[in-house]
Amino acid sequence: MVIKVFVATSSGSIAIRKKQQEVVGFLEANKIDFKELDIAGDEDNRKWMRENVPGEKKPQNGIPLPPQIFNEEHYCGDFDSFFSAKEENIIYSFLGLAPPPGSKGAEKAEESGENEAQEGEEDAGDPAEAGEETMGEVTEEGAEGEAEEEEAEKGEEEPGEEGEDS
């Protein structure tokens, strides 16, 4: 699965250039494989991007501005969606990717996977497909699980802290 980031390399807008740099920089820093596709120099890229951004995600003028992010042909979102996902620490879910091993997101995915296996085996499909079909639900469940995990961690830390102070 390749993340595609549609950019305009010759954009005159400083705001667009900054948004593009932030997306590309984040992906590079986190070693997420992606392909940068220029819509300014390649008419095919521009046409493909405009045709594949869902109607409800297009601005009023109907022409989506870069950066636009896709996972193969699956639309992930624009800069605002990317920024929100980054702030909420759900970027891998946003991109339709599995979190890297050893990350906080991977631990949560393993825990939720164990819980799902205990509840029933009916959801035992391809995890990538499940994530794409229910991306919004996964996000909400992930947020609830995160809050529960934080509460559990606080409960574990308090007795240990009291013992150390004694």
TrEMBL record:
UniProt cross-references to InterPro entries, sorted A to Z: Glut_rich_SH3-bd, SH3BGR, Thioredoxin-like_sf
The keyword Ribosomal protein appears for this protein: no
Biased composition (Acidic residues): 112-166
A single MF term (Gene Ontology): SH3 domain binding
Keyword Disulfide bond annotated: no
Ranges for region Disordered: 95-166
SUPFAM superfamilies noted in UniProt: Thioredoxin-like
Signal peptide: none
Pfam family membership, one: SH3BGR
GO cellular component: cytoplasm; nucleus
Keywords attached to this entry: SH3-binding
Family that this chain belongs to: Belongs to the SH3BGR family.
Protein's name in the database: SH3 domain binding glutamate rich protein
Species this protein is from: Molossus molossus
